[in-house]
Write a structure and sequence with these properties.
The chain has 7 helices and 19 strands. With 299 residues, the protein is an alpha/beta fold. It has 2 domains: 180 residues, FAD/NAD(P)-binding domain, CATH 3.50.50; 112 residues, FAD/NAD(P)-binding domain, CATH 3.50.50.60. The strands form 5 sheets. Strands 1, 2, 3, 4, 5, 6 and 19 form a 7-stranded mixed sheet that branches. Strands 8-15-9-10-11 form a 5-stranded parallel sheet. It has a 3-stranded antiparallel sheet with strand order 12-13-14, with no helix packed on it. Helix 1 runs parallel beside helix 2 and helix 1 packs parallel to helix 7. The protein is elongated, with a radius of gyration of 21 Å. 44% of the residues are buried. The structure holds flavin-adenine dinucleotide and magnesium ion. Magnesium ion (MG) binds next to helix 1.
């Protein structure tokens, strides 16, 4: 029996584990090792670690967390969770664990449009966050691949990192901007391409998009807003309510990161409308502290 089981040992989960380890609570971290940014060679915007690899940041965090003797770690994928008389049961392929509290730090998955060549370039020349990857692109021709009406907003934002008049919004049949949006895009020098994108090719630092009519466009970065998904059944199994965010669902929590099920906390991308390493770490720290307090004050 552990005080706390944390499912997901990435930035959010480790930040929670750190607080709980420092409070000398018994913690079990179960981690599948599939961080959302594993496709990128460098991570940016996380103070103290700017430009380091996602793996290096995670490895350093793991070393720090495992310094605390009450923190245990298993590389394992959790298949099932259940609540049982005020306790929680967590099952992997071959083990069952119990705890008084549960922290869900499982992140989200990204569903990219199914264009051949896109997935392979994710994190290399295809990105979603200009704050993470825009600066290194150094004002080249950029594009936004339309997925829904939010892509107009995304194109305007990303154009800040593009050379003047070198920004294209590829609608790709996903939607049609309204008159006001078209006027705004024009004023900002953003081209609108209506022909469908059928293929992404080329090698970093360039990406070549082939359009249905045979034309090709060379960019140095293509941005896309993917749909995000919670890739596990834990919300349903535990009865946690979800929120509808602009790009996908995430756990509904209060300010202390407790879900709608008492004793179950959620943090990081799985419990935020908008993700980054910094946000995940802050969110995880809050979840760790709040989980500890719930063990102290709620008996
Ligand atoms: P994650 O890092 O996604 O980790 C979730 C963990 O939970 C994983 O280890 C996973 O294996 C584990 N897990 C999930 N389900 C289970 C299960 N059933 N059992 C056991 N373990 C499980 N942000 C930045 O700040 N800077 C950047 O430069 C940056 N670049 C990015 C590049 C790309 C291509 C992408 C897609 C994202 C990028 N991000 C960046 C965003 C960043 O990756 C996320 O915001 C961050 O990883 C969220 O941390 P997290 O701990 O919530 O989730
Ligand atoms: Mg995590």
């Amino acid at each position: 029996m552990h005080d706390v089981i944390i499912i997901g040992g990435s930035y959010a989960g480790m930040a929670a584990a750190l607080q709980l380890g420092r409070a000398r609570r018994s913690v079990l971290v179960l981690d599948g090792g599939h961080r959302r940014n594993r496709f990128a060679s460098h991570a940016h915007g996380f103070l103290g670690h700017d430009g380091q690899s996602p793996e290096a940041i995670a490895a350093k965090g793991r070393t720090e967390v495992l310094t605390y003797p009450t923190v245990e770690w298993r590389d394992a994928v959790v298949r099932q969770t259940a609540a049982d008389a005020g306790e929680f049961i967590v099952r992997t392929e071959d083990q069952e664990y119990r705890s008084k509290r549960l922290i869900l730090a499982t992140g989200v998955g990204d569903e990219l449009p199914s264009i051949p060549g896109l997935r392979e370039r994710w994190g290399q020349t295809v990105f979603h966050c200009p704050y993470c990857h825009g600066y290194e692109l150094n004002k080249p021709p950029l594009g936004v691949l339309g997925t829904n009406p939010l892509s107009v907003h995304h194109a305007v934002l990303v154009s800040e990192w593009a050379a003047a008049n070198q920004m294209t919004l590829f609608l790709n049949g996903a939607f049609e901007p309204d008159t006001d949006q078209l006027a705004d895009l024009q004023v900002r020098g953003i081209q609108v391409e209506r022909e469908r994108v059928i293929r992404a090719g080329g090698d970093a630092p360039s990406i070549d998009l082939t359009l249905q009519d045979g034309r090709t466009t060379r960019l140095e970065g293509l941005f896309v807003v993917p749909q995000t998904v919670l890739e596990n059944p834990f919300a349903k199994q535990l009865g946690c309510a979800l929120e509808d965010g602009p790009v996908g669902q995430y756990y509904k929590t209060d300010l202390t990161k407790e879900t709608t099920v008492p004793g179950v906390f959620a943090c990081g991308d799985a419990a935020l409308a908008m993700g980054s390493v910094s946000f995940a770490v802050a969110d995880g720290a809050m979840a760790g502290v709040a989980t500890h307090r719930s063990l102290v004050f709620r008996r």
